[in-house]
Amino acid sequence: MSKTITLANLRPLYMDMKAKNTGRVRFPYQHGRVTFDVFFFIDESPFSLLFGAKQFNIAFELQVLPGFSVECYLPEEVYKALCKALGLTYDPNNHFSTRAFLSDFESHIPSSAFGLPKPEPHDIAIYRSDVEESEKIYFCGWRDNTPRGEKVTPRNLQKTRRWLGDHAHQVCSRKNLSSCWTHDKSKSIPVPFP
Q1: 3-state DSSP call for residue 108?
Q2: Angstrom distance (rounded) from CA 14 to CA 9
Q3: pTM over 0.85
Q4: 149 within 8 A of 189, measured Cβ to Cβ
Q5: Other beta carbons less than 10 A from residue 67's beta carbon
Q6: Mean pLDDT score, 118-140
Q7: What is d(CA 142, CA 159) in angstroms, rounded to the nearest whole number?
Q8: CB 70, CB 7: distance < 8 Å
């Protein structure tokens, strides 16, 4: 059996996102008792699907390979957490598989970006918390490091990439800009790309 599955229903969504010049969308997916926030990022290379369920403290990310295929593999700890969240217990006659999960997911992929919200950085931050100062999830501006004689840090660039995408990362790296973040929602501003 192949180690990948083709999610052909991503293609129409991708085409619509390209037509609308939208690099990121967010949509819900219900599997059993769990509602996932699903993020589809086409502004990254390779494309990516991020699944997150806040109420169960679970998140996992899958790379979308050429042809809209994804690997049918989750690390053991993620697989176990997913099974637990879904309320599954071991049954040798009815084995839960990542392939079956993704096959069901494919039938729920929207074909259009119409009406799908563009995820804000703080929406993504809940599930991509492997960055510097991960508690600071609200964007509050750009800092030009050149007048200070400073250099944007690799950790800030990583946070920029994880929460804002490859384009913002490349511009910040090229122009020596740092993305600035706060934990105070009242100080957040919409992200004006540099």
Answers
A1: coil
A2: 9
A3: yes
A4: no
A5: 11
A6: 94
A7: 13
A8: yes
H helix intervals, 128-182: 154-164, 166-175
Paired strand residues for 141: 180
For residues 51, 102, 99, 19, the Cα torsion angle rounded to the nearest 10 degrees is: -100
Q: Over the stretch 58-105, which tens digit does the pLDDT of each residue have?
A: 999 999 999 999 999 999 999 999 999 998 876 777 678 899 999 999
Looking at the chain, list the stretches that DSSP marks H as alpha helix, in order from N- to C-terminal side: 10-19, 76-85, 98-106, 121-125, 154-164, 166-175
Give the helix, strand, coil percentages of the chain, each rounded to 5.
35, 25, 40
Give CA–CA dist 180/143, Å, rounded.
Answer: 7
Contacts of the segment 167-170: beta carbons below 8 A, 24+ positions apart: 167/23, 167/43, 167/193, 168/193, 168/194
Whole-angstrom distance, CA of residue 70 vs CA of residue 76: 17
Q: Is-contact 66 47, C-beta < 8 A?
A: no
Which tens digits make up the pLDDT trace of 28-39?
Answer: 999 999 999 999
Residue 154 burial (C-beta neighbours within 10 Å; 0-12, 13-18, 19+): exposed
Residue 94 DSSP one-character state: S
Q: Residue 127 is inside which H or E element, if any?
A: none
